[in-house]
Amino acid sequence: MKAMAPWFARVGTPLATEDRADAVGVLEARGHRAPAAEAVILLPSWRVAAGWTNDRTMAECWDDDEDEREALWTRAAADLGEGALLALLTGATSAAAPQVRAAAMAAAGTAGTDDPEAVATACASALLALHQCVLAQVAGVPADHPFMRKYALFARGRWALGYRDGVYGLY
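Above: the chain's sequence. Below: its structure in token form.
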């Protein structure tokens, strides 16, 4: 199911209402309260998007995600067991990886980008979002959970870059 997302099909296109709503929902869940019009930024290129994710000011987003991942892992592993949970998550990301990489390369090529680091960063971001989404589903979180919202952005063809300084970056 998860491997069928239209990976990166809408990068660089205008934001849909749902894109903005999911990005703002992640911000609000993490305690950021910027007005919706100011809370989301659409980055202009693959290179700028990769730079956004590699900026050290992303530490808050990464730390928040890791804290939540650990909490969900504990909950899900209690139900499934560590080995079964790891196998499930590894299977999901391994199955999707070839399609994600091909889609990122195709979208970058269409945009005139041949930056392998940007493509690799996009792929890693998408596979992490998939991992987090499957983990969240196993842990039984509600549909408006930040991991579910982040995956929803990818599932609609976006590159969900995460937040810094109270602003969510999308491409």
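The first strand starts at residue 40 and ends at 42.
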